[in-house]
Amino acid sequence: MYVPLRVPSRGKRLFVGTLLMFALFFNSVGTLFAGTTGSISGTITNFETKLPIAGVTVNAVSPTGRYNGTTDQKGFFTFNGVSPDTYTVSFELKGFQPESITGVNVYADQNSSVTSTLQKSLQTIGKVTARGQGGAFQPNQAQDTYTVTTKQIKDLLGKADAISETNLLTRLPGASLDKYGYPVLRGGRENEEGFQFDGIDYVDAFTSQFTNSLTLNPAVGQLQLTPGSGDASTGNSGTGTINLIAKRGSYPGFGSIDLETLLQPYTHQLALEYGFATPDGRISNYVSFLGTNTSNQAGARGSRAAEYTTGTYYNNADTTSRDLIDNFVYKFGKNSGQSFQIFFDNQQTNFLGTYGGSQQYPTNDPLALSQLTAFTGLNNAQFQSTNIVSLLP
Hints:
This protein is mainly β and 393 residues long.
């Protein structure tokens, strides 16, 4: 029996509007953000018969992720929502030799194919197949994308927990620095490139200037560089997009502490990270903190710049930075194929004082007077005969 749905006129407009809102949201949400996870899939066959093997236990393990499953009747397996990293994928089935494949790189928005064969055995022995770490360029991408993994970031910057994103970018194709020292893509301008963090736009909507601090938090697991014109998923950036992929928690948990110090002038750095997940991987959380204190003093502490031309005269004397990140992910649905994510980033950078340029100077300071006269056109006598107290603090 068919029963018509009757909605009052005013309620009808609200009802239709709600449906339209949901339709627009679910049709557009896929293009708002770039993908931040990848997948691993493959087929396992019998070495002798070349037929697929069902029931093979498959495990993919890396420092930031652990995934497990079994092959179906066609010998096929797949892991979706895999955190970008370098994995070791192992295969086990009673009556066959276990096998492991190392160096399986997972990139955001891409599938890593792992196909293998198993041989029958009378006793349990091991077999390991090693893969190369792979280059930064992925030929399977629809557009040229250069991806740098955690290990490659460490190799390029010379150590773990290196914090200069600028140094990393200048080592990738298409990236360089403008005359102000800011990274640009393909010789463009700062407001012609897009910055993202875990697929979330990191660009100010009003000025088109990036709000990225160019500091690498320990949370950064991969960096994606896509030079050239992007589509809607990368903010229509004219010269390209830079996307930082955040780490996720895994089971068992992992963590690290990095403490560095340098004296005269001092630079202190503290980096912490910890990630964990439930055994089934449905709930995971990753938290990291980066704190730095830097003195930019050139010369004795508290002294002014000897020469205006040193390039440090108007620079800040001290810089403090605090950056806290938390990445919570809940997976649900069939084979945990869907996820809900809360991503939190709280960063504050303070530039404290200046190296001479905005300090108060006595009016008989020849260096201050020479600069003030150059700026204003007044002579020394005019300054000394007035109540002007040079530059503001």
